[in-house]
Amino acid sequence: MGERGQASRLRSRLLQRLRRDGGGRAADPDRPANRPGDAAGAVLMLRRKRRLAETVACVAAAIMLCLGLAEWQPFRTAEARVYDFLATLAPPSVAGVSAEDGGIVVVAVDEPSFAEVGLQWPWPRDLHARLVHALRAAGARAIGLDFVFAEPSSEAADRALASALGPDVVLAADESVIETPHMTQLIRTEPLPEFVAAGARVGLASVSLDPDGVLRRLPAAEDGFGRELLLAAGAEAASPSPPVGALIRPMGPARSYPTISYYQALDPENFLPPGMLKDKIVVVGRSLQMAIPAETGGADSFATSFTSKTGTLVPGVEIQATITDNLRHGLAVERAGLPLVGLAVTAASLLAGLAAWRPAGLTTILLGAVFVGAVLAASLCAFFLGQIFLPPLAPSLAVACVLAPLAARDITEERAMRRAVTRAFGHYLAPAQVERLARDPAALKLGGEKRELTILFSDIRNFTSLAESLKDEPERLTHLINRLLTPLSEAVLDQGGTIDKFIGDCIMAFWNAPLDDADHAVHAVQAGLAMLAAVETLNGELAAELGATAPTLSVGVGINTGTCIVGNMGSASRFDYSVLGDAVNYAARLEGASKECGVPLLIGAATAAAVKERLGPLLVARIAVKGRSGVAPVYTVLSGEPVDAGRRDGFDAAVEALLAGQPGGEAAFAGEGALQGLYATIAAREAAQSGVAGPAGAAPEAKRAS
Questions:
Q1: pTM
Q2: Which of 538, 532, 519, 581 is nearest to 558 (CA)?
Q3: From residue 693, how far is each of 156, 661, 687, 696, 700 by CA, in Å?
Q4: Is 635 domain-assigned?
Q5: What's the pLDDT score for residue 468?
């Protein structure tokens, strides 16, 4: 036994030695390696070379792509939005920059001034002369009138203003570019020569907007309004020649500067604290106290970096004050040139390439996030410490352009490996276990798709009064509402609609999603008509059950057709299949406007066009809806047989005349019950609203829907 054990141990050691030395042959240090381990090393080396080549290719492609995008105007516009964000993070304090030399005060031609002065605009120039004298007497160092006095007015008024002017007054000039197919012409509008001869300075008040309509660039004119204002005040610009394309550092939203009304400045002794204007630079211009929405626009008002945050424009007079302070205190921000951007893009791409060298995983994602954070930090430091705007989008995009394709490659290889695992273990494990081993966990994703939908809103009329009358019987109120909502919901479902949600006593539904519906507008309107019929049926049932105490129910229906986003909306843990878009909001507004229009069913113009041939929509009104500019036609559809095209066109023409203030078309529909009744309803409504004036050039509109 001892000899057998010793032989066994010897045989085992020999096998181990053979394995170690290469499969049974004696190890020869002078013999070229040709072993399985060497083959595996060669494969690994080849894989590393391929991975290195792919990484270098992705880095080079990312650098070229991002540098190309950096010169693409839409991309530069996106970078400008980043500048807006940085510029509004910590704007310079008006009080802080004013502490050095008195600062700037804005004299606003505002609503209180119009009320006090009692004159139409433009005001007489002798009134401006009085203002100049009053400001000068109050101690103002320089006065800027942000008005272009290019045309003569009355001789006496012009003479009075000319006598008030001097080297401490700056008048505005304007430049405009007129482009035609044949030429581009630059037109400069100057003040009257007698005003310049009186000693007044002239400053160019024109500004240049970015392609997205936002004012960000500092005017480059040597005789700009702000520069001339500083010269008139005896001050010097901190940066006499800011770089071309330098960006304005905004001081804040509208009314950031100390502002007084024009009428107060006319009599500072009675309306202003003593010494308020002493040694101040005063800028005079139009500045309404009411914030002007950015989408509406306004005269001499501009979108600035703060507009994206506040949604309002900044008056031109405050723009001139901001430009003056940017010049006086050297606040302008220089945009980084292509070499600096290229350096940032290259550095970000190389760092991302290093992060992607290892197979993609959580560490890669974290490193990518760290690199993007470093880019943002560098952009912040350059902005606040060096007054240089280094756009972070291109370097951040470079990180994504490197990591994304390399991560996709790793994911593809990992999935291939999972398939290999499935094949390898399929003979040894149960199919369910193999599937569980190799399957990736499914994730629900938020998002949606763009589609043309028809949206319906239905709401119970006078629900507040009904709830008040049944406040002591909540069970009865609940039963009544459920009894009404049931047939209304069935009307939607019978026409193939999708009920989005119940909002109290309101139903929201839409058509053409998730299943396609070529006639979605027709089906929505038919559902609305079915709702009205269901309400009438329910009222009859309640009258038979309760007699004189039965409530009379009614609903308003608004329908609109338009492009929306439909899909899973909500949070990552809880969401609904719903729809978003302006067309949805408009449908809700139409439902609210149906009461003022005097009809239970109101549809938008797009829906009316879609159902015109089959359901015969009839014009009801032209309304202005909150959140939309202008007026738009709205229609209704009568139950029963649709009105033929000839009678429909005649009815619409009669309603158009009625809306234009020309009643008297009711005789044309005598004996036609439905048309006669609808026309009478519209005529009664217009008579009741005859005191409400519509917009110039348009028919009188129905009451604005909220």
A1: 0.53
A2: 532
A3: 39, 11, 12, 9, 6
A4: yes
A5: 77
